[in-house]
Design a protein that fits this description.
This protein has five helices and two strands, in the order αααββαα. The chain has about 110 residues and is mainly α. It is globular.
Length: about 110
C-alpha cells in the first residue's frame, strides 16, 4: 500500500489530536502495545499544544517520524489490517478537518490508496 494520502493540514500534530494521545488520563485504558507506542514519542509539545517538530504546518521530521505518527508501521505493530487502519485514519482526519472548519480541499480521500 502506498503512503497515507496526507493533505498536510497539520491537525494531527496539534493539541486537538496529539495532545490527547500524550495525556495519561486519555490513554490509561489503552492496550499495552499502544502505551508502548505512545511512550516512545520523543518530542515535546509547544505552549500552544502542537508538536515541536511541526514547522509552518508541516512535519519537519516526516521521513523519520516517530512510531506514533507512522500509520503504516502502527498497523503492523498493532496487527491491524493496513487498509482498515488507513480507513480509520481517513475518517478521523476528516473529522478533525471538519471540527477545525478547514475547507474540503484538506479532506483525505479514501480513493487515493
Amino acid at each position: 500500500m502506498d503512503n497515507f494520502p496526507c493533505t498536510q493540514c497539520g491537525l494531527c500534530c496539534t493539541k486537538v489530536n496529539l495532545g490527547k494521545w500524550l495525556d495519561p488520563e486519555f490513554t490509561k485504558d489503552s492496550s499495552p502495545i499502544m502505551k508502548f507506542i505512545i511512550s516512545k514519542f520523543p518530542y515535546q509539545l509547544t505552549d500552544d499544544g502542537a508538536c515541536e517538530m511541526l514547522k509552518d504546518g508541516l512535519c519537519s521530521v516526516y521521513d523519520d517520524r516517530p512510531l506514533l505518527c507512522n500509520i503504516k508501521l502502527g498497523a503492523k505493530l498493532l496487527d491491524i489490517d493496513e487498509h482498515f487502519f488507513y480507513m480509520l485514519h481517513v475518517l478521523n482526519c476528516n473529522k478533525l478537518i471538519d471540527a477545525a472548519g478547514l475547507g474540503e480541499e484538506y479532506y483525505v480521500s479514501p480513493h487515493e490508496f
